[in-house]
Amino acid sequence: KILIIGACGQIGTELTQKLRTIYGNDNVIASDIRKLNTDVVNSGPFEVVNALDFNQIEHIIEKHHIDEVYLMAALLSATAEKNPAFAWDLNMNSLFHVLNLAKAKKIKKIFWPSSIAVFGPTTPKENTPQFTIIEPSTVYGISKQSGERWCEYYHNIFGVDVRSIRYPGLISWSTAPGGGTTDYAVDIYHKALSDGKYECFLSSETKMPMMYMDDAIRATIEIMQASDDEIKIRSSYNLAAMSFTPTEIAAEIKKHIPEFEITYNPDFRQKIADSWPASIDDKEAQKDWGWKHEFDLESMTVDMLEHLG
Ligand code: VAH
Fold first, then answer.
1. Half-sphere exposure of residue 138: CA atoms within 13 angstroms, side-chain side
2. Contacts of 252 (CB under 8 A, 6+ apart)
3. Residues 6 or more apart from 251 whose CB is under 8 A from it?
4. DSSP string covering 136-199, please?
5. Residues 82-107: pLDDT tens digits?
6. Which end of the chain is more exposed for a tag (fewer CB within 10 A), N or C?
7. Which of 75, 167, 271 to mutate to test the pocket of ligand 1 (most atoms within 8 A of CB)?
8. What residue's CA is closest to ligand 1, atom 1?
9. Pocket of ligand 1 (CB under 6 A)
10. Ligand 1 centre from 307 Cα, in Å?
């Protein structure tokens, strides 16, 4: 059985639904700090769980005979800069709780998300390799780097089966992002349809790695279904699909909504974006567990506008 912590969040919502389709509603226990999403709450078992409460997580794991945990609760980059102490507490201690439960053999497998935010200003910006300089300059990035180190440590020293992906910015029509720097690439579609214009909080040429949610969910499930010996990297895998600037995504939207206009008014998130890579090399994921993305900017835009329109 599977437990998802943070099941009502941006990724958790879609991951829960997909896992329920694959493994059956009753075998996928959704949990979050509150009942924030009615689809998630009503489509199968749901528990209110605080990711910072070890005893609560342990209790739910025993009650439902859980083997696998997907830990999707976290504060994202922009929110973390506003509340560094809480971000560090939540992002690190929730991970320790789950790693320690695996170390104690109460669960067999963990999925934990890392991010391209793990990279910093001294990392090569284009085609960022799997193994490179990693000096993150954001609270969120520091928590992801530390998390990656601990995942690898728990695997090497205690034999914990933990698997992880460095997600790029994720774009979805069905779930809203929650406080990230890449959120503009979701908002822009909503505003293009509702207002015909969008004011972007990043500058026009800010290029960032992005991925459509369908690909991200498939990657998450594929890395968890891979055999143990295929997973050679136990920190976190680079993962890529597309990279674009606000200018480029606006041009793609204009193909469908010719009157669409974008303006720019960068805020504190510009500095966060500037510290991250522009594009990612994910050949290790391709080689080790057969990763291949499907969606590019063009096909994603068609699908987004079709669903939202
Ligand atoms: C954020 N979407 O902007 C997240 C992500 C690629 C960064 O982890 O904070």
1. 31
2. 244, 297, 298, 301
3. none
4. --SHHHHHHHHHHHHHHHHHHHH--EEEEEEE-EEE-SSS---S-STTHHHHHHHHHHHTSEEE
5. 999 999 999 999 999 999 999 999 99
6. C
7. 167
8. 180
9. 76-77, 115-117, 140, 167-170, 180-182
10. 23
Q: Could you give the 3-state DSSP secondary structure of residue 231?
A: coil
Q: How confident is the model at residue 178 (pLDDT cuts 50, 70, 90)?
A: confident
Side chain identity at residue 249, one-letter code: I
| R_g over Cα of the chain | 19
- Euclidean distance between CA atoms 34 and 89, whole angstroms: 19
Task: Indicate which atom in ligand 1 lies nearest the CA of residue 179.
Answer: 9
Mutation to probe ligand 1, out of 10, 11, 72, 76 (largest number of atoms < 8 A from CB): 76
Report CA 159 to chain centroid distance, whole Å: 24
Domains of the chain with bracketed CATH: 2-170+211-238 (3.40.50.720), 171-209+241-308 (3.90.25.10)
Looking at the predicted complex, does its ipTM rise above 0.85?
A: yes
Can you read off the two tokens belonging to residue 4?
């998802």
- Point out the residues that are catalytic: 140
Q: Which of 150, 206, 168 is nearest to 282 (CA)?
A: 168
Q: What mean pLDDT comes out for the span 130-139?
A: 98
